[in-house]
Amino acid sequence: ITMTGQAMIKTTQKIVNEYIEKKWKLPKKDRVIAMDTDSNYISVDDILKDIGAKMIIDNELSPEIMEIEKLIEKNVNIKIKEWAEDKLNSKDPRFDFKREAICPKALWVGKKHYVMHVFDKEGVKVDDIKYSGLSVVKATFSNETKSITKIIVKGIMTSLDKKRSDEKYFDYFDQFSNIDLYKIAVRTSLKTFDVWSKKCSGFKIAKGTPMNVKFSIYYNELLKDKGLQNKYPLIENGKKIKMVYLKPNKYNISGIAYLDELPSEFGLEPDRPKMFEKCVTNCLKPIYNALKWY
């Protein structure tokens, strides 16, 4: 099944390219800019330029792009069935390609790692940003930090204006210091705490200890050191925790985990610039690099 799927999607790539070259009399080149398990991503930019048309007019898809899409889809479905009958000896091939989305802009930062500005999804007008393989939507980031990153990315994809994108980035950087710590902490769970904690002694952490375990050990040790076990529960294996990076402190620890509340008795100050870097900046770097916005 896997090999058949691979052969089919590669054949579709060939069908698309040959049809575009013949139909619009364009130079031979690969206009399928990416492929997935069951998808081809096709650039029609030079078709639009050749016929003097735009993809979007007055915030609506142009008649030309709709016609281009229909012609390509129709030809693909005719040719892929012919291929299946010939190569797969199928008397009743059920392959049926449909247009999933039309995007005025899309940016690949690596294989299966992309961001798209989706203007039309399966015939329904939308204004969405689709992500694949990017840490923008990483589950460990809070909804608040993901929201910040998504707003900046949407601005990038709709404007492609570095100056405006930078301004929005720094605006959110300034606002970050006023957001409640709970809303910006990294979320994760502990699955190997018992395994690694046995290898550690106090603040002496065994080499290779995962960061979430290390930060949890720091939390437990500080509770014990300050006699706060009756006020705050210890972190145990299987618990869901929050993690924050810290400014330089007398314990010489770079970060700490906690359950619902970071004890004020610890006297620790979160490193918000570093939190912003880890949760927002690092998500944007691949996109900036792909655009050569250095």
> Over the alpha carbons, how many angstroms does the gyration radius reach?
26 Å
What is the terminal separation in angstroms? 44 Å
Instruction: Label the overall shape.
Output: elongated
* Uncertain runs: none
Class by alpha and beta content: alpha+beta
Task: Count helical runs.
Answer: 9
Word description of this protein:
By secondary structure, the chain is an alpha+beta fold. The protein has nine helices and eleven strands. Strands 5, 6, 7 and 8 form a four-stranded antiparallel sheet that branches. It has a three-stranded antiparallel sheet with strand order 9-10-11. Helix 1 packs across helix 3 (63-87), helix 4 packs antiparallel against helix 5 and helix 4 (143-159) runs parallel beside helix 9 (272-290). It is elongated, with a radius of gyration of 26 Å.
Give the topology, please.
Layout: H1 2-23, E1 32-35, E2 40-42, H2 45-51, E3 56-57, E4 60-61, H3 63-87, E5 101-102, E6 105-110, E7 113-121, E8 124-132, H4 143-159, H5 162-176, H6 181-184, E9 186-189, H7 193-197, H8 211-225, E10 240-245, E11 255-258, H9 272-290
Antiparallel strand pairs: 1-2, 3-4, 5-7, 6-7, 7-8, 9-10, 10-11
Helix pairs in contact: 1-3, 4-5, 4-9
